[in-house]
Amino acid sequence: MPHGALVPQHYRPAVYWEARARRFAAHGEGLAAVCSYGMPHFYNRLIHLCQRRALAPWLRVGAGTRVLDVGCGVGRWSRLLASCGAQVTGVDLSPTMIAEAERRARACGVASRCRFLVQDSSALDVEGPFDLILCVTVLQHMLDVGALRSALRRIALQLAPGGRLVVLEAAPARVANRCNTPVFRARHRRFYLRLFGECGLRLCELRGVDPAPFKTWLLPHLPRLPRALSLAALGLATALSAPIDACFGRLAPRRSWHAVFVLQHASGD
């Protein structure tokens, strides 16, 4: 894990994410609460920008579009979608995340188009259906496969006929567990494709996010490096990755560490 990161002895998601939210959700853009814990701002900023670029086609929605933002965190995607006129419901495990999402929505003038609820996605209970469901880096933190399957089934039930479920997760096309932590799993892409099928979903489109390999080469070694050296190495890796990911991310899904899965009901309904 990176310097300064929290390594829980027993990962209890609700406790872990509430602790992160209390520490980071109100700071700046709140990226340390929802991106990489213990990493400097420049690194989390690059993660956010790569995600936004990869998700761009689905962040442009028409007025009145019904959107569910699963694991909404501080509401970074909810606010963008609401600013386009969408009616957004955001759910998150952490009460502090939800309170911060509400505060930020009010500050941006989109609170009337946002509704935020404290909920566990594996026991999701919202008033759907939704035309668009967004699930960004949520499943990779669900270590229990039973809870993961339950969450995905419940999410799929909220999808309107003809609607789209857009999932962005760490899903390498090659076996890669060297970056796994007590709170994170980079599951093979085939795992997700099988799981989507089991939950009655079919893949419509697959896009890449971050094909540059420098960060994933470096991350397993950071805890063993002195702080100054690790920051320098991380800065270099981030600088090298930025132009590659920006130019080729969406076009290189097989080489990307993260992937965007665009899904519909398998029946087409």
Mind explaining what this structure looks like?
This protein has 269 residues and is α/β, with parallel strands linked by helices. It has a single domain, classed as Vaccinia Virus protein VP39 (Rossmann fold, 3-Layer(aba) Sandwich), CATH 3.40.50. It is built from nine helices and seven strands. The chain has helices at residues 13-24, 31-34, 41-59, 76-83, 95-108, 145-157, 189-198, 214-218, 227-248, and strands spanning 66-70, 87-92, 114-118, 130-136, 159-170, 201-208, 258-265. Mean pLDDT is 92; it is low at 1-5.
Précis, in short:
By secondary structure, the chain is α/β, with parallel strands linked by helices. The protein is built from nine helices and seven strands. α3 (41-59) runs parallel beside α9 (227-248).
Report mean pLDDT, rounded to a whole number. 92
**Unreliably modeled segments:** 1-5
* The CATH top-level class label: Alpha Beta
How many alpha or pi helices? 9
Beta-strand percent range: 15-25%
**CA-based shape:** globular
* Topology order in helix (H) and strand (E) letters: HHHEHEHEEHEHEHHE
CATH superfamily: Vaccinia Virus protein VP39
The strand line-up of the biggest sheet is 3-2-1-4-5-7-6
Radius of gyration: 18 Å
What kind of sheet is the major sheet? 7 strands, mixed
Helix percentage:
25-40%
What's the structural blueprint in terms of helices and strands?
Blueprint: H1 13-24, H2 31-34, H3 41-59, E1 66-70, H4 76-83, E2 87-92, H5 95-108, E3 114-118, E4 130-136, H6 145-157, E5 159-170, H7 189-198, E6 201-208, H8 214-218, H9 227-248, E7 258-265
Parallel strand pairs: 1-2, 1-4, 2-3, 4-5
Antiparallel strand pairs: 5-7, 6-7
Helix pairs in contact: 3-9
